[in-house]
Each structure stands twice: as C-alpha cells, then as structure tokens.
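Shipment paperwork, digital attachment
Item: protein structure file
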Amino acid sequence: MLIALAALAFAAGVDVANCSNNNTPQACPEFEQLVRNVLANPRNSVDPSILSTVTWINDGGTMNAGYRHMDGIDWNWSYDYDAGDLGAFNIGQTGTYYLHDWTANFNGAVPTDQFNQVLPKVAGLAQGWVDSNGITHGVETLPRMHYRGRLGWSDGPFSVIGFVNYQGHFYNTQGAPPNVNFSCTTAGGTVGAAGATFPCAIRLSRITLAFPICVHALGSSLYP
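Attachment content:
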C-alpha cells in the first residue's frame, strides 16, 4: 500500500538504509515508526490500522521546498507644527525601498533576484544585460519603492488630511505597441511586417512599461 503525505510528519535524518525488503515493512522498525508518525498526524484521514501494510511513503508536501528572502530599507517620519490661531499642521511619510528579493523554488536551486533580472528585449531595446565579467546589470520586475505621504491641518473640531500613495516603476515582458522602435510598418504595408523600412512614428531610447502610480485621497485612508 502507498500512503501519500500532505505534510512532512516525521523527523528528518532517520536512517532506513538497511530496510531493503519492501515486502516486509513490519521488519523495519524505523520505517514503521515513520508510518506511525504520519498516521498520528491530526490531519490524517487514513485508518491507522493499515500500519503494517504500508510499503511506501510519498511526501507530496510543497511547504519548505524553497525560500524567499527580502531585504530593504524602511522609513517613517513625521513633523507637527502649531501655528497658533491658524491651526496645527502635520506632515509625514512612511515607505520601503527594496534592495533584494531572492527566491528559490526548491532546495539547491540557483536563487533569482526579482530586482535584478535580465528580461527579453522589447522592440529591440535591452532590459538588462550581463557584462563580460559575468555580472548581471538587471532591471526590477516588481516595484522597488513604495511610500505614503501625509499632509494635514486641524483647528478645533475641524480637520483636513490628504494622502499620496506612490509605487515605483518596474519592467515586464509585454510587447511594445505597433510602430515603436523596430516594430515599424512598410510604406503601404502592414503593421510590424518583416523587413519594414518605413520610419517609426515613435522611437524610444528606454522602455518603461509600468509607470509610477500616485493616488490622492482626502480625509480617508486607501491602505489598511
């Protein structure tokens, strides 16, 4: 019988190398203990009486198969000013600037930094490169900087406060619109035809496919 695990239910590092006969699992106390631990898991839905008939354990767990490590700089500042009869003013900002976002999907995998990626060219323009020394000069695939600014005023029962939320630009693999850079048309031809010679209507020296986002709010918070 095969028993499949939804989560690792036994301690790692148990040596069962000498338990080589799959037809007599009950003769291997180490393996039997592994099965016993699995069957004792509170989330187990299998009848514990199958203990002596289990010959294989398949760990189908997906947790702890890889990792994600992020680092960056957080900041938070605020300033209040009492202007007397003109009321009280306050200003502040809270934000984060990410330095790295390392991810690996499984143990032993080479980690990738989402803020230092080399993406395919878009309309003939490079999105990151690797130099002759093997050093990656990549681009970010996630917003690197987020911040929220605040400006407020109060006077007795009256108060007004405004917020601005900012999210930095990032890069992706979306295609460029027609007639941009190397996606030009031929004279009397179709958009993006091979061997196009008609001058581009627009030529960009740098592609930024996602633009900074600024959202203004008055008297309420847009973020929890």
